[in-house]
Amino acid sequence: MELVNNVICPFCGTLCDDIICKVENEEIVGTYNACRIGHSKFVHAEGAMRYTKPLLRKNGEFVEISYDEAIEKAAQILVDAKRPVMYGWSCTDCASQEVGMELAEEVRAVIDNTASVCHGPSLLAVHDTGYPVCTLGEVKNRADVVVYWGCNPFHAHPRHIARHSYARGFFRERGRPDRTMIVVDPRNSDTAKLADIHLQLEYNKDYELVDAMRSALKGHDILYDEVAGIPREQIIGAVEALKKAQFGILFFGMGITHSLGKHRNIDTAIMMTQELNQFAKWTLIPMRGHYNVNGFNQVCTWESGYPFCVDFATGEPRYNPGETGTNDLLQNKEADAMMVIASDPGAHFPQRALQTMIEIPLISIEPHRTPTTELADLIIPPAIVGMEAEGTAYRMDGVPLRMKKVVESDLLTDNQILTKILERAQELEASK
Ligand code: SF4
Fold it and tell me: pLDDT for 310-328, tens place per residue?
């Protein structure tokens, strides 16, 4: 058995970089340091749910085809469509995302990633108010007040707290005892149970709570006995804890980005972070889910000027979330073909969007059987990035990390598949 050190976990946006993989006969059979979900991804790559050949649906049944046939078919679907959508991109590497951008421009598609249904509101808020950010390394070494708002890393990012928020750091030698942890969550989640202060607000009242905290921060009275179900004194106590920080960090998740107010919640949370800098160093980081969801937003921005929901229909990039989001196009029955890569909208999109996905040609570039592949007309299986192919991913704090190839695979990588589809699409467009 061989041990491969310093492997980066290709599961969540924490991108833990200290994983050790046990490899036997070109298969990962075990891990050290990974959490349960990361470990599960590494050791369950193979098995009955793994596709090893491209599949095309014929008369309701999947039949095996060659990669060449699958690439021809995919290029044909995208070139023939008037309003193709290319969605996903969050579980693949940046170089593949870059090829995807070129392909979207070539076939005049809408290209969009999973941020559309998770941290999209955060991206909109960043346009309005900026982004006072730091790295997870700074959190580990400096942060003495840590806020988790609308997220439950204990389960969604299981090593996040231990590696960054509770860890012993350069200026926080004792780790947990040197830090105050505040959790804002309507539920008494497992993360909330670890907190020094739990602000258990009412559902959908995040905006009101941030607003009251900003009032207290500016020295104004809070006019009500309670706001968002939290007594005035508790709010003032929490604000005092924020003001006393030497280095504070606000981690926020979909509990605030998708509660009532959406990107306006993040607007006001960013403004609170900026205002806190009058008292202490304060920064914020969104808790990104898929391991390279951030990478797509970076690649898409440097290629088109916009982070997601980019529409190339006119040949120029256009951006209007609410109109050019994947769900908007599917639910309005505008899209007439779809390519899904590195994500599973079949498991997460609303029924109305899924109905359109059933009705239009659907390509799925996906290693495993998922609810999306169940709806697909064409399935193209890739090697898994971070395990069977190397590539770059952006951690939730915007730090790019190079992921390793741990084992060999006979399958084409996402990058190779997309490059071949792009080349064929260019030929088809030229012959039109
Ligand atoms: S916390 Fe995330 S990146 Fe780290 S091992 Fe677990 S799943 Fe992987």
Answer: 999 999 999 999 999 999 9
Pick the residue whose CA is nearest to atom 5 on ligand 1. Answer: 34
What 3 state SS string does the chain have? CEEEEEECCCCECCCCCCEEEEEECCEEEEEECCCHHHHHHHHCCCCCCECCCCEEEECCEEEECCHHHHHHHHHHHHHHCCCEEEEECCCCCHHHHHHHHHHHHHHCCEEEEHHHHCCHHHHHHHHHHCCCCCCHHHHHHHCCEEEEECCCHHHHCCCHHHHHHCCCCCCCCCCHHHCEEEEECCCCCCCHHHCCEEECCCCCCHHHHHHHHHHHHCCCCCCCCEECCEEHHHHHHHHHHHHCCCEEEEEECHHHHCCCCCHHHHHHHHHHHHHHCCCCEEEEEECCCECCHHHHHHHHHHHHCCCCCEECCCCCCEECCCCCCHHHHHHCCCCCEEEEECCCHHHHCCHHHHHHHHHCCEEEECCECCHHHHHCCEEECCCCECCCECEEEECCCCCEEEECCCCCCCCCCHHHHHHHHHHHHHHHHHCC
Are 74 and 337 contacting, i.e. CB atoms less than 8 angstroms apart?
A: no
Predicted TM-score (pTM) above 0.85: yes
**37 CB under 6 A from ligand 1?**
yes
CA distance 245 to 223: 26
Identify which of 314, 312, 345 has the alpha carbon closest to the alpha carbon of residue 331. Answer: 345
The tokens 């994947």 sit on which residue?
326
Q: How far apart are CA 316 and CA 57, in angstroms?
A: 34
pLDDT in tens, 342-385: 999 999 999 999 999 999 999 999 999 999 999 999 999 999 99
> What's the pLDDT at 247?
97
On the CB side of 78, how many CA atoms lie within 13 Å of its CA?
A: 37
Question: From ligand 1's centre to the CA of 19, what distance in Å?
Answer: 9
Q: Is the CB–ligand 1 distance for residue 35 below 6 Å?
A: yes
Any ligand 1 atom below 6 A from CB of 136: no
Domains annotated for the chain, with CATH where assigned, are 2-42 (no CATH), 50-117+291-430 (3.40.50.740), 120-286 (3.40.228.10)
